[in-house]
């Protein structure tokens, strides 16, 4: 099946998908099917919205077993078994409580002026180089790395280093030549930064300082666990947001009438962002979970030890429009569901909202500088995204 199948609704080109996924919309009777992941492991792929929600909240499907030595992996760069993303139960809940306060809606709202000023600075630089610019290198890449580093307390001078090293954590299909070296370099850097922050007489309210306090004063976290947690947050907060920004701006500019409407009524931008998260998500699948016992679903049996992943794209498209319109809160699965729902969803949405607002207000009216069928898509990554998004004015 052609993985760039055209669909109506937001843009003609869907872009490349992992080989084991079919482009939505899927036939109504395809709710779950056996497939081979990029790693070569066999697993169940669930594309039905209601089944997906059930799996993501069902304790019979374990992340820790899937992340263990015998677990079926999506690719070579699945999270470490020691990562918060790979934990179940109380172990997961304890780590999540340590960082949850940093990512509450109210705390994230305080960052809005900071994010807005970053967007302004970045887009003013793009505009100064006109009459054509790349909104991936000019906006989508630098914005999330500056924001997540600000939240974590990583010094300004180190942020370009991070941008160059973190991408290695997202390659699904092949190991970059220097991938292991870059991963070890990130670990060493994080250990060094934690050591430096420990020596500070007065620590800030950044996340790493909060975790040091939890480690040193309350004994709730080991140094090794702190490093792993910081890298997991960095991983979750960077690449996915980079790609979602590029897809959201693509969605915006591929529908000029929508851009005009939002330019005239900016209060509708958050609604547009939410809808694009549902219909054009950067995240293609969840990480695998492993069944701890036999589970009957959709007339099929998931056996003990068999892996299951949720096809986020298919599940989101299986969500009835009536449910979307009648819901008072977002119910798509782009940020997951259940205990592993993305902690940084509010942080991602404020960046998306300010990015859209900035493109509409800080730049002259812009249009795509390339045909939609000629877009330069990323391949071999855990997320959908663009290598570049050229615009002109």
Using the CA coordinates, give the radius of gyration. 21 Å
Describe the main β-sheet briefly.
5 strands, mixed
Shape: globular
- Helix and strand run: EEHEHHHHEHHHHHHHHHEEEEHHHEE
Number of helices: 17
Unreliable runs, pLDDT <50, ≥5 residues?
Answer: 1-12
Ends distance: 37 Å
Strand content: 5-15%
Number of strands: 10
- Derived from helix and strand composition plus strand pairing, the structural class reads alpha+beta
Strand order of the largest sheet: 1-2-8-5-3
Short note summarizing the structure:
This protein is α+β, with helices and mostly antiparallel strands.
Describe the structure.
It contains 17 helices and ten strands. By secondary structure, the protein is an alpha+beta fold. It has helices at about 50-55, 65, 90-100, 105-110, 110-130, 135-140, 140-150, 160-165, 180-200, 205-215, 225-235, 240-255, 255-265, 270-280, 310-315, 320-325, 345-360; strands at about 30-35, 40-45, 60, 130-135, 290, 295, 300, 305-310, 365-370, 390. Helix 5 (about 110-130) packs parallel to helix 17, helix 7 (about 140-150) packs antiparallel against helix 11 (about 225-235) and helix 9 packs across helix 11. Strands 1-2-8-5-3 form a five-stranded mixed sheet. The chain has a three-stranded antiparallel sheet with strand order 4-10-9. It has a two-stranded antiparallel ribbon with strand order 6-7. The longest helix is centred in the middle third of the chain and has 20 residues, at about 180-200. It is globular.
């Amino acid at each position: 099946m052609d993985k760039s199948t055209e669909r109506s609704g937001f843009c003609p080109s869907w872009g490349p998908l992992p080989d084991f996924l079919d482009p939505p919309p899927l036939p109504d009777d395809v709710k779950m099917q056996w497939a081979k992941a990029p790693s070569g492991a066999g697993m169940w792929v669930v594309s039905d919205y209601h089944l997906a929600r059930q799996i993501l909240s069902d304790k019979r499907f374990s992340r820790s077993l899937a992340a263990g030595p015998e677990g079926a992996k999506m690719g070579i760069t699945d999270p470490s078994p020691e990562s918060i993303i790979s934990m179940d139960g109380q172990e997961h809940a304890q780590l999540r409580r340590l960082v949850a306060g940093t990512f509450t809606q109210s705390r994230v709202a305080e960052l809005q002026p900071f994010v807005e000023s970053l967007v302004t600075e970045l887009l003013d630089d793009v505009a100064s180089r006109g009459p054509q610019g790349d909104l991936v290198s000019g906006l989508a890449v630098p914005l999330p790395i500056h924001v997540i580093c600000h939240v974590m307390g990583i010094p300004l001078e180190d942020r370009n280093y991070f941008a160059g090293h973190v991408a290695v954590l997202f390659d699904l299909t092949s190991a970059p030549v220097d991938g292991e070296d870059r991963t070890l370099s990130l670990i060493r850097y994080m250990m060094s930064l934690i050591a430096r922050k420990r020596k500070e007489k007065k620590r800030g309210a950044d996340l790493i300082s909060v975790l040091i306090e939890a480690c040193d004063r309350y004994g709730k976290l080991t140094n090794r666990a702190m490093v792993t947690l910081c890298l997991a947050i960095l991983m979750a907060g960077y690449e996915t947001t980079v790609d979602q920004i590029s897809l959201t701006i693509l969605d915006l500019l591929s529908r000029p009438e929508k851009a005009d409407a939002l330019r005239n009524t900016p209060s509708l931008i958050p609604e547009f962002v939410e809808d694009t998260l549902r219909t054009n998500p950067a995240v293609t699948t969840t990480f695998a979970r492993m069944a701890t016992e036999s589970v009957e679903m959709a007339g099929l049996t998931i056996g003990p030890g068999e892996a299951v992943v949720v096809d986020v794209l298919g599940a989101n498209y299986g969500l009835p429009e009536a449910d979307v319109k009648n819901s008072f809160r977002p119910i798509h699965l782009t940020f997951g569901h259940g205990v592993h729902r993305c902690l940084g969803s509010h942080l991602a949405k404020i960046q998306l909202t300010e990015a859209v607002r900035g493109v509409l207000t800080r730049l002259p009216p812009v249009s795509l500088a390339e045909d939609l069928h000629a877009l330069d898509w990323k391949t071999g990554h855990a997320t959908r995204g663009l290598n570049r998004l050229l615009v002109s004015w």
